[in-house]
Design goal:
Elements (H helix, E strand, L loop, with lengths): L3 E3 L2 E3 L5 H14 L1 H17 L9 H26 L3 E7 L1 H4 L4 E2 L2 E2 L13 E4 L5 E3 L19 H11 L6 E5 L15 H13 L5 E8 L8 H21 L7 E5 L8 H9 L6 E5 L14 H14 L11 H4 L4 H10 L1
Parallel strand pairs: 3-8, 3-9, 6-8, 9-10, 10-11
Antiparallel strand pairs: 1-2, 2-9, 4-5, 6-7
C-alpha cells in the first residue's frame, strides 16, 4: 500500500523533495514580479528621503532574490513536515460513537460543552477526504441518515492534548454509522472498505495512525446468534484492520456497552470485557446516563466517555515525527554571505 510503519504507527511515506521543491519554486517565481516591484518601491522611498542607496540592478537584486527563494523553499518544506506530525485516530462503530448527545426526536439541541469545544490543534477528515477544523457533530457528513450530536471524539482529543501538549496536532477520522451490526463491518463490506480507505487518505498528507476508538455492539444484542458470535467476529475485525493497515500492534480502545437494542446486552458485554488482544483496552460505559430513548448517551456522558478513552490510551505508544528540517539550524553562513555581497 506504499505506507511504512514507524514505532508501531501507520505512517505515510516521507514527502519527496522532487515534489516539494518544484511547488516552492512555483510559488517563488510566481511572486517575483510583486517582490521586485516592492523592492523598487522601497528603494525609491529611501531615495526620496535623501538616503544614499544604489539603484537596483540585476547584480544587486540577485542576492535578495536568492534569499527570497531560500525562505520560500524552507517554508514549503517546513509546512510539509508540520503535516507529518498529526496524531491520527480512527473513530468507528455505531451511533454512540457517531454521537447522539443532545439529540431528541432526531433533532440536535446544538449545545457543545466546553470539553468538546473546537481547538486549533484538532482536525477532522471530512467525507470528501479533506482536513478541516474539528467541530461537533464530528460525524455529520458520515452518519447522515440520522441527526448527529455530541460524541466522545472531541472530548477525547481535548483531554489527550491537556494531558500531553507535546502530542501536537490531533487528526480525527470519523467512520461510525448508527444501527450497524458487527457483521456489517466484516472485511470486504462497505463499512470496512470505507474505514480502510479513509485511514489511508488520512496519512497521505503526513501523520500517523495512532489508534482506533471503537464503540459498537448495541445492534448485536437483538439476536442471540449475533450475541454469541460477537467476540469471534469482533476479534476477526480487529485482526483484519491491523493487517490491512500493516499495524500488528495498533492500539485499540473499545467501549463496553452501556445499553442495547435487544435482550442480550450482558452476552455482548461479556464478549467485550473478556477479550484479550495485544494493545487492546476496554473502557466500561455501563452506568453513564442515557437519553430518554434509553439507548444513547447524553452529552454529559459523552464528555465523560471521551475523557475515559483519553485516560485509557497508552502514552508510551505516541511516536511523534520529528522532521529533519525542524532539527536543522538555519544556514547562518548562507545568510552572512548574502549580507556581505549585498
Amino acid at each position: 500500500m506504499g505506507q511504512k510503519r514507524c514505532g508501531g504507527a501507520y505512517m505515510a511515506p516521507p514527502q519527496r523533495c522532487d515534489n516539494i521543491i518544484p511547488n516552492a519554486l512555483r510559488v517563488f517565481f510566481k511572486s517575483l514580479p510583486t517582490s521586485f516591484s516592492l523592492a523598487m518601491h522601497v528603494t525609491h522611498g529611501l531615495k526620496d528621503a535623501n538616503l544614499r542607496y544604489p539603484t537596483p540592478t540585476s547584480t544587486t537584486m540577485l542576492p535578495s532574490l536568492f534569499v527570497y527563494a531560500y525562505l520560500s523553499i524552507s517554508s514549503a518544506i517546513t509546512l510539509v513536515n508540520a503535516d507529518a506530525g498529526k496524531a491520527i485516530f480512527l473513530l468507528a462503530g455505531q451511533s454512540n460513537m457517531a454521537g447522539r448527545g443532545g439529540v431528541v426526536n432526531d433533532k440536535w439541541d446544538g449545545y457543545v460543552p466546553p470539553q468538546s469545544s473546537p481547538n486549533p490543534a484538532i482536525l477532522r477528515l471530512s467525507a470528501d477526504l479533506n482536513w478541516q477544523p474539528a467541530t461537533e457533530p464530528l460525524h455529520r457528513d458520515i452518519d447522515y441518515f440520522r441527526a448527529c450530536g455530541v460524541g466522545p471524539g472531541m472530548a477525547f482529543a481535548n483531554s489527550l492534548i491537556r494531558q500531553d501538549s507535546s502530542i501536537g496536532t490531533v487528526g480525527l477520522v470519523p467512520c461510525a454509522v448508527g444501527g450497524t451490526n458487527i457483521s456489517e463491518w466484516a472485511r470486504g463490506g462497505q463499512l470496512y472498505n470505507q474505514l480502510i480507505r479513509r485511514a489511508e487518505a488520512a496519512v497521505e498528507g503526513g501523520g500517523t495512525v495512532q489508534g482506533l476508538l471503537w464503540y459498537q455492539g448495541e445492534s448485536d444484542t437483538v439476536n442471540r446468534e449475533d450475541a454469541e458470535l460477537y467476540q469471534r467476529r469482533l476479534e476477526r475485525f480487529f485482526d483484519h484492520v491491523r493487517h490491512d493497515l500493516v499495524l500488528p500492534a495498533l492500539p485499540i480502545i473499545q467501549v463496553a456497552l452501556a445499553s442495547g437494542a435487544g435482550p442480550y446486552i450482558e452476552r455482548v458485554r461479556e464478549a467485550q470485557l473478556g477479550m484479550w488482544l495485544v494493545n487492546l483496552r476496554t473502557v466500561d460505559a455501563m452506568g453513564l446516563r442515557l437519553e430518554p430513548d434509553r439507548l444513547h448517551l447524553t452529552t454529559t456522558s459523552q464528555v465523560t466517555l471521551g475523557e475515559m478513552l483519553a485516560q485509557a490510551f497508552p502514552r508510551d505508544h505516541l511516536s511523534p515525527i520529528i522532521s529533519q528540517a525542524s532539527r536543522t539550524p538555519p544556514n547562518y553562513i548562507f545568510f552572512c554571505y548574502l549580507f556581505f555581497i549585498i
